[in-house]
């Protein structure tokens, strides 16, 4: 049997390790966000008031990798002309258009060409503002209809 001191020490050790792992994960998102234009400006397509720090993942907090994450990894986890020109989510807008680098000129440390109207390059359904006939309001409307039908 463990003494009270041993149990407390063990519990604090487990908590400490968990905190270290979580802090490392949070830093990892920031490191990758620094490597793409507007990495800190990507919003949740269904709720643009919320940010989406884990851009290469299917949820804002991480989890499985989305197609943009796969493409980013394949490019050495760097913003390249190839990654910029790809349309990872298949919505008709290149990753560069979605992230404010339509001419694929952005480099780490530079201001992107556009810093507003940033859309998610790994989630089909939101479109940059310059794409005629598309818009984030359409996705929000669809989400509202879905929620309304679920509650009816």
Strand content: 5-15%
Distance from N terminus to C terminus (CA atoms, Å) equals 55 Å
Q: Specify the biggest β-sheet.
A: 2 strands, antiparallel
Task: Note the run of SSEs as H and E.
Answer: HEEEEHHHH
Mean residue pLDDT:
79
Q: Please bin the fraction of helical residues.
A: 40-55%
Low-confidence stretches: 19-28, 132-152
- The largest beta-sheet arranges its strands as 1-2
- Count all strands and give the number: 4
How many discrete structural domains? Answer: 1
Number of helices: 5
Structural class: mainly alpha
Shape: elongated
Specify Rg, calculated over alpha carbons. 19 Å
Outline the fold blueprint:
Layout: H1 4-33, E1 43-44, E2 47-51, E3 57-59, E4 62-65, H2 67-74, H3 81-85, H4 95-98, H5 136-151
Antiparallel strand pairs: 1-2, 3-4
Detailed description of the structure:
This protein has 152 residues and is mainly α. The chain has one domain. The protein has five helices and four strands, in the order H-E-E-E-E-H-H-H-H. The longest helix is centred in the N-terminal third of the chain and has 30 residues, at 4-33. The model is unreliable at 19-28 and 132-152 (pLDDT under 50).
Identify the notable features of this structure and list them briefly.
152 residues, mainly alpha, two-stranded antiparallel sheet, two-stranded antiparallel ribbon, 5 helices, 9% strand, elongated, disordered C terminus
